[in-house]
Automatic annotation (TrEMBL):
Coiled-coil features, chain-numbered ranges: none
Family: Belongs to the parvalbumin family.
Residues that bind Ca(2+) 1: D52, D54, S56, Y58, E63
Record's keyword annotation contains Repeat: yes
Pfam hit, one: EF-hand_7
Residues that hold Ca(2+) 2 according to the record: D91, D93, D95, K97, E102
SUPFAM superfamilies: EF-hand (SSF47473)
GO-annotated cellular components: cytoplasm
Protein's recorded name: Parvalbumin
Function text: In muscle, parvalbumin is thought to be involved in relaxation after contraction. It binds two calcium ions.
Domain of life: Eukaryota
Amino acid sequence: MSLTSILSAEAIENAVKEFQAPESFSFKKFFQLCGLSSKSPKEVKDVFQILDSDNSGYIEEAELKFFLQRFVPGARTLTDTECKGFLSAADDDNDGKIGVEEFLTMVQS
């Protein structure tokens, strides 16, 4: 499964382009621009599985750094500040990582 089987390639590209500048990333706006916030819970969970590159069942801070690159190879990495902000916004149980239900809640918020 690929991200483009769930989201349009054009929407993904436009969303990534929007956040080319360091410290500009907004997960809410990104999820809206790429179309993920309007997808079904199953589709959001499928995207989570793709983003969970080590298949641990969680998206850890190290994986968040490469978040945009999972959508478009060659995109910039997220800064440490962006990663920490993303993590703290989603990590409801404060275990230092984002689980699938936390990701779903974040995308749908």
